[in-house]
TrEMBL record:
Gene3D superfamilies: 3.40.50.12090
Annotated InterPro entries: Bact_Sporulation_Assoc, Cell_wall-bd_2
Coiled coil: none
Biased segments, Basic and acidic residues type: 353-363
Region (Disordered): 351-379, 414-446, 497-524
The entry's keywords: Signal
Entry annotated with the keyword Signal: yes
Polar residues compositional bias, start-end: 414-445, 511-520
Taxonomic classification: Bacteria, Bacillati, Actinomycetota, Nitriliruptoria, Egibacterales
Record protein name field: Cell wall-binding repeat-containing protein
Pfam families for this protein: CW_binding_2 (PF04122)
């Protein structure tokens, strides 16, 4: 059998979940609660939420803990330490609390004193949580046990050393590392409560490579259950595990939400009695889900991840809860409306009440296109009008409203944070011509211009009038004052003169013309190849959510990273390009049209928005500079050809627009040799890369180890380049040096390394198979 300390030494980290503890005494106060008649039982609904992720963790802990001798503290801006710390929290009957890296949040300090905490485990080294936090805890007479390693995996080992040795029969295996921070954690979090109930460990693995230490660990486990589909943990891994364990199974759904439902049903089946509590958290961001998992593991509770934008997922969750839980049930929704909108919460509770024979609550239903409404909500942002106006949705789900319209409230409100920083601002027709100043609030690397923030002071007595041909972009700021990016979420409300045609694409948010020029009927699916999927291929329906929210990118240059909302899009240009390449290649595979539809619609919308930036003063938005400026050309070109839009389809013919990957690649000429930067006559014609070639060729160098050459540029281009080749659009791209250099780069780099392909194994396997 396999002890917990052994499990902690697995190369990619081992997360061990302690056995389920007993509920604590009186639960603390909740942010919102109500009782609903649900047939023969009582349905209690609670929203455990604070003003930010730190406050939400405190509110969630208050639902379980009336007092505690021990607490576990983890950083609020990364999930690895908190994921490992959840096991420690359950073992010690301790709340899991989050705090900023630099100091102990005052609210956390107050909570520790209120609960009577005498000892605190602080997770991570100085870079994770500063030593100032230790000193603050000592000032509170709280003993500090810091568990830290050189990296997150070693920190997980330190955490596991605090747990008692225990033999186990079953282990859960999940994907534990992914280049995209939005992936990798959902399956591990979803299974945490179940594993806790059984006293079973969770082992983390790469997608297609089982580490030797993991192999050794699995030899001592009778049963292994893989959580997630083959896009997360490959069939090859399953084959390897089958040779090690006596029994192997897989629990998975079509996406993280269905997988969460499958895991919860498995949990309910193995419970001694029907669970009387269910914790629900967004599947889009880790903080709320982590704290929910730790708390669910402490009570007879199920844990579900829920889509913050999908009422169909809400209905599926309600159906499962009706079948598996006690008639008297408490639903605890973790996070505020920005995480789980009221309409989604109402959809779950309403569907469950209806399933159990009660009266379904009548929340404000989403209006059909052309119907009137007094407010609409999108991605945690609610716009309230002074009256009812005709509203509807574009193909990607964003709202339009027929104006002019008077807005009397934007929630969350633009205000000053506790640190005095302006947050949660809104802009109308944000443009590259605004430069590095925005109205979204004060963020690192951009200036804040109060005159651009149209959300400041909006009220019934001082409404915001928005005229037709306007795009209102509203943002939710991150909690931390000096974070990059500085926005957590953003959404677009388009004000039109006349309702657009059904299934229209949203006009670009940077444009002052909101005429809808294309619908989904214009999409030419015949242009997409139907290739056999390769190992590691994502499910297009799951991948669609990565592109559903607006990719906010109108600030020029590297400063633009400051406004890339963390729940909407990757922050860094390399990561953006890699994700866009992955999405494009997924559309090249032989999947049914309906399975590709949402991904294609969302992807084309991003291309429309990028083109809107170019057309509204953004010709120099993406000048070459390290890894920041790449990835924007292909979505425009792709959208132009799929929609048969000549302006977008000929973006490659424009010589006045900078795109990072084009502006960094060239064929060496005699002029480059004469520049004296290291090229010789033997290099003439060689495809090459320069960090700022188009704007400062004096910085070119043949040095293969030149900064940014391997880490952050061409290792994210392959998805775009291969997609263009597969669709025979290399000529339309109109920059052969990019294609030639990408071939050279990939042939030179070591296979199987992130400096060859940032997205592995999918993009790498696509290239190796189809190039």
């Amino acid at each position: 059998m396999l002890g917990r300390l052994q499990l902690a030494l697995v190369l990619l980290a081992v997360v061990v979940v302690a056995a389920m503890g007993s509920p604590h005494d009186s639960p603390g106060p909740s942010a919102r609660g109500e009782d609903t008649d649900a047939g023969n039982g009582e349905l209690q609904v609670t929203r455990a939420a604070g003003e930010d992720r730190v406050g939400t963790a405190i509110a969630a802990a208050g639902e379980v803990f009336g007092g505690a001798e021990t607490a576990v503290l983890a950083r609020a801006d990364d999930y690895a330490d908190a994921l490992a710390g959840a096991t420690l929290a359950v073992e010690h009957d301790a709340p899991l609390l989050l705090t900023p890296r630099g100091e102990l949040d005052e609210r956390v300090a107050d909570t520790l004193q209120t609960l009577g905490v005498e000892e605190a485990f602080v997770l991570g080294g100085d870079a994770a949580l500063s030593r100032d936090i230790d000193r603050s805890l000592n000032d509170l007479d709280v003993e500090v046990d810091r568990l830290a390693g050189d990296d997150r995996f070693e920190t997980a080992t330190k955490v596991a050393e605090q747990l008692p040795d225990q033999e186990v029969d079953t282990a859960y295996l999940v994907e534990g590392r992914h280049a995209d921070p939005a992936r990798g954690w959902p399956d591990a979090v979803a299974v945490s409560a179940l594993a806790a109930a059984e006293g079973s460990p969770i082992l983390l693995t790469d997608h297609d490579q089982l580490a030797p230490a993991t192999t050794e660990a699995l030899e001592h486990v009778d049963e292994v259950e893989i959580i997630g589909g083959s896009a997360a943990v490959s069939d090859n891994i399953e084959t390897q595990v089958a040779t090690l364990a006596e029994h192997i199974g897989r629990t998975s759904g079509d996406d993280r939400y269905e997988t969460s439902l499958e895991v919860a049903e498995r949990h309910a089946e193995r419970s001694g009695q029907p669970p009387d509590t269910a914790w629900l958290a967004t599947g889009q961001a880790f903080p709320d889900a982590l704290t929910a998992g730790a708390n669910a593991a402490t009570t007879n509770s199920l844990l579900l991840l829920i889509d913050d934008a999908s009422e169909s997922e809400a209905s599926a969750a309600a159906e499962l809860l009706d079948r598996t839980t006690a008639q008297s049930l408490e639903l605890i929704f973790v996070g505020g409306p920005a995480a789980i909108p009221d309409r989604v919460m109402d959809a779950v509770t309403g569907s469950l009440s209806e399933e159990r024979g009660g009266t379904r609550p009548d929340p404000e239903a989403e209006p059909a296109d052309g119907e009137s409404a007094s407010e609409v909500s999108r991605h945690g942002i609610t716009w309230t009008f002074d009256d009812e106006y005709p509203v509807g949705r574009y193909a990607n789900g964003d709202y339009w409203v027929q104006g002019p319209v008077d807005i009397v409230d934007i929630d969350p409100a633009s205000q000053n944070s506790s640190g005095g920083r302006t947050i949660n601002g809104s802009m109308i027709n944000p443009s590259p011509e605004d430069g590095s100043s925005t109205g979204y609030g004060q963020t690192r690397d951009t200036g804040y211009d109060p005159s651009l923030n149209v959300a400041d002071g909006v009220s019934t007595s001082d409404p915001l009038t928005v005229e037709p041909d306007s795009s209102l972009v509203s943002a939710i700021s991150v909690d931390e004052d000096d974070a990059r990016p500085g926005l957590e979420s953003a959404a677009v409300l388009t004000v039109v003169d006349q309702p657009p045609p059904e299934d229209s694409f949203r006009p670009a948010y940077s444009s002052d013309d909101t005429t809808a020029t294309h619908t989904t009927n214009d999409l030419d699916y015949d242009l997409l190849p139907d290739l056999d999927p390769v190992d590691g291929a994502p499910d297009p329906t799951d991948l669609a959510s990565d592109f559903e929210r607006v990719w906010l990118d109108h600030v020029p240059g590297w400063n633009g990273r400051a406004i890339h909302p963390t729940t909407n899009m990757p922050g860094y240009g390399r990561d953006m390009a890699s994700k866009l390449g992955q999405g494009s290649l997924a559309l090249m595979l032989d999947h049914p049209t309906e399975q590709k539809h949402d991904l294609l619609v969302n992807y084309v919308q991003i291309g429309i928005d990028f083109h809107g930036i170019v057309d509204n003063g953004g010709e120099e938005n993406w000048v070459p500079n390290g890894g920041h400026a790449q990835g924007r050309k292909w979505p425009i070109l792709f959208a132009g050809h799929l929609l048969d839009d000549p302006t977008m389809a000929t973006i490659g013919d424009r010589d006045d627009v900078y795109f990072g990957e084009d502006a960094q690649t060239f064929h060496v000429t005699q002029e480059d040799v004469d520049r004296g930067v290291g090229y010789t006559s033997d290099d003439i014609g060689m495809p090459e890369w320069g960090i700022r070639h188009a704007t400062d060729p004096s910085r070119d160098t043949p040095d293969w180890n030149r900064s940014y050459r391997q880490c952050c540029t061409a290792n994210s281009w392959a998805g775009h380049v291969l997609s263009a080749r597969l669709m025979n659009l290399q000529d339309a791209w109109n920059h052969d040096p990019l294609f030639d250099y990408t071939d050279r780069f990939i042939d030179t780099q070591e296979p199987g390394d992130h400096e060859r392909f940032w997205d592995r194994p999918f993009t790498e396997n696509m290239w190796d198979t189809y190039r």
